[in-house]
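Sequence only, no structure available. Ideas?
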Amino acid sequence: MYFVFTERDGDKLRFVTCEGLKGDPVESEGFLELGPDGKPLRGVVDGEPTPPRKILESVRSADGVLADEDVVEDVRRALPDDVNVDVARLCGRCLGSGRVTVVEKPYRLGRLEVCRRCALEALEEEIAFRYPRYSPSLVEKMERVLRRIRDVDTVVEMFDPAFDPSRETERTRWRRVEGEEEEWVELDRAGVPDRIRAILRRLGYERLNPVQVACVEEGLFDGENLLVVSPTGSGKTLVGVMAGLKALTEGRRFVYLVPLVALANQKFGSFRRELGDLGYDVALAVGASRIKEFRARRPGADPREADVIVGTYEAFDLLLRTGALDPGEIGAVVIDEVHTLRDEERGPELDGLICRLRELAPEAQIIGLSATVGNPSEVAGLLGARVVEHDRRPVPLEFHLVLNQDRRQKWERIASLVEREWDTVYSTGYRGQTIVFTYSRRRTHELADYLADRTGLEVRPYHGGLPYGRRKETEKAFERGEVAAVVATAALGAGVDFPASQVVFESLAMGIEWITPMEFLQMAGRAGRPGYHDVGKVYLMVEPGRRYHRSQDRTEDEVAFELLEAEVEDVEVVYDDGDEREQVLAHVASGAARSVDSLKRVVSRSLGFATDPKGRVRELEEAGFLTSDGSLSVTDDGRVAVRYFVDPLELRGLAEAEGDPMDAVCRVHPFEGFLLSEDVRRAVRKSADLELPRRFEDALSVLYHEGKTALERVPPKIKERIVNTIRELDCGCEAFPDCEHVTERASRLVLEERVKGASVYSIPRRLSDRYCFTAYPTDLAEWLEGVVRLLEGAGELAGDPGKKAAAEALADPWASGGRR
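Reply:
I predicted one. Tokens follow.
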């Protein structure tokens, strides 16, 4: 048994006894009343008067005698000299709960020193009070902050509505990635060939940074293929440009490929200024729109003849598939954002393109660029490349976590962060600027308006649904330092290339999905640019317990901690049957595979092609797309199908479909971006206290199964629209409304509005006025583009003028008499 003296209360020296010192229960308690000389006069144990002599006998027989450091001197005076008294720091909260815990490294809780267990209990009580829907992992992860600060009250203050994260950066900082003082090397000493060195100087470059020097050392100017994996802002683009300059000075062509049209436009503008001034023709390859409202003259030179081609993967691939380009003229191909390989839809397309390139242009140098590849050796194998990996950032990057009770608190704090960052002027003379990511296009406008009103600063929305001219003007204004913040969708994260010092995640969702670690690291990496900022800052604004869609099985705080601790993901390419058929047809059509043996060689390089290509050849031959009499060649139907980037068998099925071509195309390719009309959502919430999902199909299911009483409470006009919607979309099958026919029939309504003469901008309003669903215009435009192309392809295959006419009516309804 242990004797533990805990405090002095006047003349009373209080003690407890216990069997152990690690949270063990108190066995007995009492006190010694001291005289003027500090010696005990009277004693009490468990409320009973006890002679001091008897208490001292128990002290002598104890396994140990301990005293709190505040009373140790009093205890030593009171006890006989032969009793050894050890100093101990005791958990005040345990004592108050009838337990004894000796702590070596105490935590603060108010005026008490407490043990880790009590500190965590107090923290969890506060979290449960503030965030009733919190996840168990929140306490576990917040312990990390507590261990660093070691003061419960200081951590709890982070949960207070008055807490200002813009002023309390030490508390919110989760981790810091240190920057590296880069050793730049003068061009003269960097191994750059004379002719290219002269061009670089004309472009304003005098030195190379460590990443660029490493690429030179790995054979950049010797024609070696390279995979360059390094953080955002580390100078990867210049590596690609140097490879391009090598090709151009040798009289060969330079191709720079990106995943998004927005990025292609950005790169085209800069290359046209820089390389165009050197006398090279620069072309933009992004594909011509079939939709009347989006038809525009492509700027720049003809891609089939230009020295430099800047484009999207698919637009360049089309040039190869159709033989519009001589691959032998290509000297360098840069594949930016090469981690797009892991994208479910575009990954197989890019994987196949790289396989074709290596076969068709074996002399061309291929440079892959990415900030996030977890398995570089595998991706380098696809490229036939050496790996240049550099994991140090040129600018430090701080990650901050801020917990919020609701949207209002979250937005107020974002306003504070934007305002404080704008007031920050870095050593380079540049102001701090912010990118805020949120989960929907509508929310970018709402939040941008709020931030502008709250701060008085220039804050703008930025997403793929805005006209190109408006996006371009925002990019230029941001670069000129005229815009304090942009609010963008997470879906556009890869295409946002603003010189921002701060990135704020208002939400960790992308539509109805949580963002992935790779997407998070890509977006977070936008914070802090060399030559602009001394540090980059990333803020995760988290609402514990929050889910943005009922299909989400994790809460926002759980996702936040996963992202903050995530490693860079491996790049994996997954093909389905249709992807394999499409890529085999593309390999043959482009000339990359002229026999089964050469086809096997081409697909053997793939990261995702998993079956025997002979089986795919047989399928395509039976469907009339290929012939294999000794060698492989495409038929006329094959030449049609390869232009449409779809499973050839799917296109054949559409070509052979009888009946209305618009019904057929909606079965094959329905629109999947319908949203519940916002006024309907608000009305149901207000009248029936029912929260509906934003995604239309989910909302319809809730209304149909759970919301029948809600229909009786909503305003008559809202009820009429809901009833119209159910009547129009009800297919009569037992699974309605949880069946695929809902999106098919809703898609058909879109096409009907289009052929009546509605623009893609007016269709959402027409749908919402009559029904209870809508969509973003640019999402509709992208889908409509695919519908028109499918009908064109199916019409060509079938020789069906009806399908061609349907395609023309959807592309330009006014040419066929539609009303605007």
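The chain has 33 helices and 32 strands.
Hope that gets you unstuck.
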